[in-house]
Predict the 3D structure of the following.
Amino acid sequence: MQPSRDISRLIEIMAALRNPDGGCPWDLVQDFRSIRHYTIEEAYEVADAIEREDFGDLREELGDLLLQPIYHAQMAKEAGHFDIGDVVEAITEKLIRRHPHVFGDVVADGAVDAQDRWEAIKVHERAAKAERKGDAEPSILDDVPQVLPALARAEKLTKRAAKIGFDWPDLPAVRAKIEEELAEVAEAENAGDENALREEIGDLLFAVANLARKAGVDPEAALRDANSKFTRRFHYVEARCREDAIEPAAAGLDRLDGYWNEIRSKDKA
């Protein structure tokens, strides 16, 4: 078996790995559930390579991600559900259907118009899908995946609701809601009610996700950036502790906060 630029070779390799006669023992015992987390992890690693603008890593990570649908399709083929050809046919049919301005005689007046047409087509698709499943009352929130990261799902849920006018009128209104939720967090804290505190913090996070969406900011990406910034600044704090020959745990909050303010000032300079 030799490497190839042809995707059919990848399909052949996956089939060989899953072959009960001489295949890989690890691959043979996997199922959809056991590898689903790899699918999610590979998508995040692709996103990470893009954010770092490391195109060598991106090439490799895209390959790892590409393996996932091949893997799932091979298991589906073995179970008699579908094969990779069915997957390719389904996505090509969907792309053609959702782009009548490219593959039909519809004219799209710019990117916004194209996006609006895409969304309108998706609304019809969701209704048709609900009908096939026998759901008498389809919801606009249907098919927002449960497994999305909570912050990303909150943004997507509120975006869907906003399509029918269920939305705050402007950013000040969302900020007022956040202030309201903060007050309710304080109230639950003062009452010593742990369950209420957990619920109110959840409401606060949901409101912040709404604020990000309203401001045109991807909340998941914004939080990832904040995590990266915190990590970089904390590394500086640790380095300063080493310079002053003191253990971070023994430095005390005032000293640690001083180091933190140093790097904050450098960032703003």
Summary: The chain has a mean pLDDT of 93. Residues 37 and 43 are 10 Å apart (CA to CA). Residues 7-97 form a domain with the Helix Hairpins fold (CATH 1.10.287.1080). The longest helix spans residues 219-243.
